[in-house]
Amino acid sequence: MAAAPHMSITIGGSVRENLRYCVILPAYNEGRHLATVVGRIPEWVDGIIIVDDASTDDTLNVAASLSDTRVRVQHNAKNLGVGGAMVTGFRAALDGDYDVAIKMDADDQMDAGELPTLVRPIELGMAEYVKGNRFRRSGRPSAMPGRRWFGNVVLSFLTKVASGYWHVFDPQCGFIAIATPTLRRLKLDGMAKDYFFENDMLIRLNVVDARVVDVDTSSLYGNETSYVRRVGPEGIVAAAGRYRRRPVPSRDVGVPRRGQRVMGTAAAKEPHLCDDVSA
User: Of 28, 40, 73, 112, which one is least surrounded by beta carbons within 10 A?
Assistant: First the structure.
């Protein structure tokens, strides 16, 4: 018997039971945190895609040993960086026919209890892309290193200029959710593979005129080594150079204008560029 069709993500209201969600965990040498992070993901999330980005520790073994039936493991034979790992995860999410794809870091620095807040604007039809903002509540978190704070401020300004999303702050926050019909419109092959990934996402979302919303989120800063390179002066210079090479706006027929709601239309799926080791 054919499965019942999912409700459009643009109807709004209480639609969580009609949507399929997946959380993507890009993981590089996160073996000691991975099981804890997966264990905190709520039951209403339908799928968990772990992308082992050629880790040199036991991340792949830990991922493969998890008993949670929602887990699907992808393995990059070569380390591609957080952006490259996310492209792998995005392709797996599209192949899995999920309605909403969520990114969380695998280093246990994001609060899974805030997932309902993150996806709510998509559920209500208010946005196609939602990202966390760690600074709206109280400015710079006391535990955030000054170097990282400075980098975020500068990159926020550069991202505003390049993307046109002037209301968006904290572009380096990796706590994001995207409606998969919008994800299908993005050109994943050219997406930034490194720490510039989140900024590049915003620029590409502007190309397809997607609606973007910030929501208040928190972050935990401990002694973990962040997967994403910490932004310093050298990173800012590199980012400025990239902003000069913005993508050319898409001229594809049917790309929605800002303010229109993206319906759950089907699109051709892209092939995997990695190994699925879940079987």
Answer: 40
